[in-house]
Amino acid sequence: MADIRNYTLNFGPQHPSAHGVLRMVLELDGEVVQRADPHIGLLHRATEKLAEHKTFLQAMPYMDRLDYVSMMCNEHAYVMATEKLLGIEVPIRAQYIRVMFDEITRILNHLLWLGAHGLDIGAMTMFLYTFREREDLMDIYEAVSGARLHAAYYRPGGVYRDLPDSMPLYEVSKMKVHSAQQVAAMNDNRHGSMLDFIEDFTNRFPVCVDEYETLLTDNRIWKQRTVGIGVVTPERAMALGLTGPMLRGSGVAWDLRKKQPYEVYDKVDFDIPVGVNGDCYDRYLVRMEEMRQANRIIKQCVAWLRKNPGPVITDNHKVAPPSRVGMKQNMEELIHHFKLFTEGMHVPEGEVYAAVEHPKGEFGIYLVSDGANKPYRMKIRAPGFSHMSAMDEMARGHMIADVVALMGTFDIVFGEIDR
């Protein structure tokens, strides 16, 4: 009697390569995938509904918790949508700070992607390398906002505060983990301002990317696992709603920073890397080059911010709080402060869509306001949601091991997919 070869396998949600809480039902013929059915929603927290019960300002920190490796980019789309409805101008210095932090976030995201993608398909050391650089960037996040992950730094009308004049220093531990000389060496680039620290990072970072490329780009095992896997033609990529590196890896030069410039992206110089074959390897190369281009943008922002001091948030006190000093000396400003943090700002009626070029693709926020102090409706356009829907088409005919490579190349985070 012949064996029945077709069987069904649950990939995840416990599987370490499922990147969180994906349950994927795979129909297999031997080891070849016939059909992949992603079951999502295991991390659904009703973010869009919660936002309807919070003021426009209180809903902002929810954005950090969507794609929790690209925190400030999520915030950016939300504050841009709110600003469009309010019709307010953001100070130019705040725009440069936002662009700089968007690109720092892009590097943070791609470093985690590279470490996890490598770990998924057997390149164990990558994870250790990428987290070494992530630590410096997390320190920048912490110095500016007080939190390493959920920054809540952007505000409608600008950013929470200007860049600090100093960076936190390491101290000698009572456990004597590092000697005084080692601690002094670790603090070597932390004695200046935050801009000095960021500039030092941008000077070091290209060499780090070279190290990653040395380990992977011509590595025959890496190429065997990624070349020719998950090929998407440019036409199919557009039809499937792919955006970001997933679309550019297929050879479509679509990037919102160039095609629909926002903030000061039209004033900085950078290139858009584009793939040729549309496979996992090309998407890897695109993201590697994106890290180098992000580094270029950060350098230009640092140079501009050094030369141009100024306000970092709008002076419209119906939207942004007055200074602490003013609030404690002036009745008028005290009332503004009180009203803003209790009732919140009233946003004019209307509907708006604002999108940013998020590290994973086009992240958009659709907001409807009925003139009250809370959003009437909020809809989040998460790039990973469209990418996940392409899994069935891309996985067919591949082996189970290639499904893991596809999960890595999607750069999936379930916070934004399940919302």
Could you explain how this protein is built, in words?
The chain is mainly alpha-helical and 419 residues long. Helices cover 48% and strands 11% of the residues. It is built from 18 helices and eight strands. A three-stranded antiparallel beta sheet has the order 1-2-3. A three-stranded antiparallel beta sheet has the order 6-7-8. Helix 4 packs antiparallel against helix 5. The longest helix is centred in the first third of the chain and has 29 residues. The chain is globular and about 85 Å long. The termini are far apart.
- Overall 3D form: globular
Structural class: mainly alpha
Strand content: 5-15%
Summarize the helix and strand pattern as letters: EEEHHHHHEEHHHHHHHHHEEEHHHH
What is the end-to-end distance?
48 Å
The DSSP helix count reads 18
Tell me the Rg in angstroms: 23 Å
Uncertain residue ranges: none
Largest sheet: 3 strands, antiparallel
What is the helix fraction of residues, given as a range?
40-55%
Got a strand count? 8
Average pLDDT, all residues: 90
**Widest β-sheet, arrangement of strands:** 1-2-3
Protein traits:
single chain; 419 residues; mainly alpha; three-stranded antiparallel beta sheet; 8 strands; globular
Short description:
α5 (125-145) runs antiparallel to α7.
Topology (SSEs and partners):
Layout (H helix, E strand, L loop, with lengths): L5 E6 L11 E7 L2 E8 L7 H5 L8 H5 L6 H16 L5 H29 L4 H21 L8 E2 L2 E2 L20 H7 L7 H23 L3 H7 L7 H6 L5 H4 L7 H4 L20 H28 L16 H6 L1 H12 L7 E9 L2 E9 L7 E5 L1 H7 L1 H5 L4 H11 L3 H5 L1
Antiparallel strand pairs: 1-2, 2-3, 4-5, 6-7, 7-8
Helix pairs in contact: 3-4, 4-5, 4-12, 4-17, 5-7, 7-12
